[in-house]
User: What shape does this take?
Amino acid sequence: MSLLDILFLGALAVALAMALLGGTRPAGVIATLSYAALLAVLALMEPLLAQSNAAIASSVKFQIIGEEIGWSMNGLGWFFALITVAAALFASWFSSGQWGAVQYDMRRQHVLLAVNVFAMLVLLSSQDLLGLFIGWELVSWASFAMMTQRGGAAARAAYRYILYALAGAMAVLAAIVIIRAHAASFNFADARMAVAALPSATKWTVVALLTAGFGVKMGLLPFHLWQAPAYSETPGASSAFLNAISARMGLYALIVTLLQVIGTDVLTNLSVQFIWLDARDIIMWLAAVTMVVATFIALMQTDARLLLTWHGIGQGGYMLLGVLIASPLGTAGGLMHVMNYGIYQAALILSVASVMHRTGTSDLDRLGGLITRMPLSYVTMLMGIIGLAGLPPMNGFVSKWMIYKSLLEGREPLLLALAFVTTLGTILSVYKLIHNIFLGQLRQEHWEIREAPLSMTVPMLLLGAICFVTGAMPGLTLQLVDRAQAAIGVPLLAHHLGGVTLATGSLNMLWVVGTMLAMMGMGAVIFYLLGGRHRAVHQYDNYAGGHFLSADLRYHFSHEFYPGLARVIGPWYRGWIVRAEASLIRLSDIIGHAWRGSFDAGITPLYVMAALVAGLLWVRSAGGLP
Amino acid sequence: MTLSLLAELIVMPLIAFVVGLALVLMMRRVRARIERRIGPPLLQPVYDIVKLYAKRTQVSHGIMHDLAIVMLLGGITTSVCFLPVPGLEGLARQGDLLTLVYLMMVPMLGLALGVGSCANPNGSIGISRALTAMLAYDVPFVFVVIGLAVAYGTTSLPEIIAHQQSGGIATWGAAEMPLLAIAGFIAMHAMLGKEPFEIYVAPAEIATGPMAEMSGKYMGALFVMQSFQLYTIGALYVTMFLGGGENWLTFLMKLFAVVFVSVALTNVYGRYKTDKVIRFMWTWPTGIALAGLALVMMH
Assistant: This one.
């Protein structure tokens, strides 16, 4: 029994244990400890993956059409598995106390989380195309179940998701069938040789089918509409898990298929005439446009959860950009961003969940001033937004910096400009997020609110702390990234604890963060020790141009936070994709209604009979019957 | 090695502070001369800081308000350490131009958080406008930075300076890439937040916006930040386009010249509306910068 078997069995055991004990009080603690144990198993796997082609095989195998299908985990899968299990750990830690106790059906949430972890582990250890497809379907249905658990708007969003996911899966299946027809094997290595020999029209078809199919999960444009409503309607802890890692399964599958099965050399040779673009450029532009569009949609949201999930879609674009550059710096930056993003996004979603737990809303127009009541949640969110905005000293800055540099090295100035503009949009929207929730006027109905309990704040703050530590010492994360990079076959990036040293401009975060801390210390001395004593005043003791401020007066500037900007870019949000999607849904409704009519009891036997006759005729014509 | 580096980390912010105060003085004197006044005496900026720090009324709106001042002072002095000046390289090899661009946003974030926790709608509107302005001017600035990085093949500031100093004025950024230099100047002028891009102060509309709730040493810290800001933005422009400083004399001459042009221009403009700032920034400077980038890419 290999370590991978233990990992699979462990994940299944958690699911089973949660099915039995999920409703009891210590369930959250048990789940947290079990995920910690799974993390330990992953840690034990690390030394075995040190060689570049190393993989840990599972003993589960089966035969199909003369081929053996099995599972084994390499460095890339291991890297994603690490984030998956860690995200599950923090999600169940968060729900182990008061938050879990007030949930409608915590047992189901625990079970579904464990099932999702298992499904993702299966996907992440696929070693051939069929295994990839099986894992992909498992993940799709597992996350569908997770999204539907609350019913209502969540279920509608999840229904939308499963339609997209099924269409995507069909596209993927079609691509696999094409590859299999030429390779006569599901194996990645055989598939790679077969794809290289395909005519270019077929290559284009395969690339388009795979990108579209797996892109659905990432929310790649134009398949981006389902993700934000589906993820944000899911209950807090599960939502943190989905946001942190679920969409990244699409990225994993894209890395495996585009980089390992098809290969960047094939992608760059597929050129489009007259527009100087090749297949890789087109996917990169798609990623960049996704990044900008999703971020500027996030900017206009008035719900904290929606705002964050839209950013999740946008951040996926950065990762895909970095990975597709396929230089050591680019893939390292892209993969590192997967981990960094998982950390700060989980922190952000959990801090919004704790605000919701106390106030009952995540509507950015109905909150404000909570910093005095929930300071720890505020600190978490502050660390998270600095990471999301990609400013020093948090980890998001390092991975984005690496992606910027790799775009510069790859001479992609326009893509780099889009990446920069996305960062600017992110800064605007995250400030709106923290301002509308935590800063400004505290509303009268929130005067009695207390900070979330320790079972919620400790995991949140821990995530924020990891965000800071991996920002100051990016070498810690880069060591893990090395494993994944070796598995893709990209040369490793030379790095040290503080960052990377390049001939074209280096980054040493130890110095950056150290100087920031020292200078802030100096600022603190100047501010606190020099000058007159400051005194704190009540929030209504404010400059109001001669007016008296009182509790019944609402003056928190929150709705339409960027009016000047909205006046300029507002007309750009015409939503033609939304309308296109709506008409597609209507079309599928019409077809669905027509189809349902034909299932009426009276007619069904007729159909069955017709099908039977047609089948018999076919078999007869094929010469099967005398 | 480490010891001299630490010494540089102390000296560089101090120099920046003194030069920044001189720049503030110049700004006020230029304005005074245009208005046919004599202007403030030599030490007026120092008197102002002392006065503000010594005030009896020092109103705090909570811990975040105080911490924001710390974050703001810390952030702006950190960016000074990454900006090489003649003889002092500081940390310029531990971070590059991209790092500096992002470091310069940290004090902005600090200010925004502090003003937000004051719970004054004027302040919040000011921050909303300041961030909008940032989105406006950073778009052309981004193209300028990218153009420069592509042209020099590096983002390391010492390398960029060395390249520009290799052949006299002919190899200055402004001589080699005049379009980028023009766009960069407009963007950096907007960064200073002076007319015509003064939308987030706008005394007549939003009661000086972010400064509405700042009294005593809070205001003093903003004053210090302004002097640092004049220095960093001016020095960054000199580094990017005017060959950096061969020695302190030429460096200061260039720095004062750049800031002089900028502060003189502010006096002849009124204030744009917010949407007008965005439209202007996203058309003219961005267009010029894009043209400059295209020229760079063709080489």
